[in-house]
TrEMBL record:
A Pfam family that the UniProt record links to this protein: DUF4293
Signal sequence range: none
Keyword match Transferase: no
Segments passing through the bilayer: 7-26, 65-85, 97-115, 135-152
Organism of this sequence: Pontibacter mangrovi
Source domain of life: Bacteria
Protein name: DUF4293 family protein
Protein keywords: Membrane, Transmembrane, Transmembrane helix
Amino acid sequence: MIQRIQTVFLALMAIALISMLFLPLWSKTDPATGETLVLSAWNLKSYFLTEAGEPGKVGTIAQQGTIAIGMLAIAAAVLAVYEIFQYKSRLNQMKLGLLNTLLIMATLGAMLYYAYFVGNDLIQVEGKGTYEAGFYMPLLALVLNSLANRFIKRDEDLVRSVDRLR
């Protein structure tokens, strides 16, 4: 049934992963030059900040593609939507939930790789940078995925207990 609580959690998880595609994930600013390196789901760009703190002209660091982050997030969101419609097979839903956990962890791993290894090498400044709003979306998706899996398992346990009584 589509009106179950795990459907809400899976839908919110898909929304969180899709919103991550449009939000900045991580940034680091060089205070000497005012150049800011921003990581998004699709690229790693540098900007020079204006007096108002807004991104101005393009920085000196070459843009790098980070398409792996975006593709992993899209795959996890599509899998969450597919998992919603597998409500007749709870065991299948639990397997898809486990696969989705792996995809979200891979997304987090790719984000941390680009932030700590690629981004830190491009701007040699003390500190690790700032986590932006998009960085927390996969973490929220992990929590929502675990909640959905817990309720799917509860439904499966309920069905098995009723079958035992027959």
